[in-house]
Design brief:
Elements (H helix, E strand, L loop, with lengths): L4 H16 L1 E3 L7 E3 L5 E3 L20 E3 L11 H9 L3 E2 L14 E2 L3 H8 L11 H4 E4 L10 E4 L3 E8 L6 E8 L4 E8 H6 L3 E5 L1
Amino acid sequence: MNYTNTWGTEVIDIALTYANHEWYDAENNVKHGLDSCNNMVDTPDVTWTGIELHCGWWKVEEMNKGIPYSWGGASTLEEFDRGLLDGKYAGNVPEDKTRRGSYDCVGIDCSGLLSVCWKLPDRVTTRDIPNIANRIETQEDIRKGDILAKLGNHVMLFVGFSKEEKDTAIIIDSTRSTGKVSMREVNMEVLFHKGYGIYRKI
């Protein structure tokens, strides 16, 4: 693709709308139990306490900020807001990765966020990244809108580097550990050690 700084800025602007989206929910948007297809759902509201994850954050009948993480989800902002009004569940943060996603939930996961922000024609998974992106070999070449990805595991959108520490990247992602789309900082050396690579849209 013909990469420009404008393109990268557009990617991050879309991601920020997910991180900053404000929404108001009701009691029927909470779920801790089986959905209509007998799949287990746990919304990341404040009543949720996991064994390993402690990411319950949103509150009933209050204004919340940030689209919640939903396993297998790729809701647009409009689909999310409409889904809440229709009684769908706000997010799904399974600790057990063998669980299925739920059509009764609205929200977005890491690859869903990538699909939306890169304006891909179809939803992709992290395993599909080599088909839509080229690997960038050096950290010095990373640009806004590129991704940091561990194939088959997780993907983050790159915003820039911290002014304080050069090896600290500012990213936006949707992760089970936070329970939502958010901007945060990560150490590049730690990511590379864990098997992450840098990728740019073809």
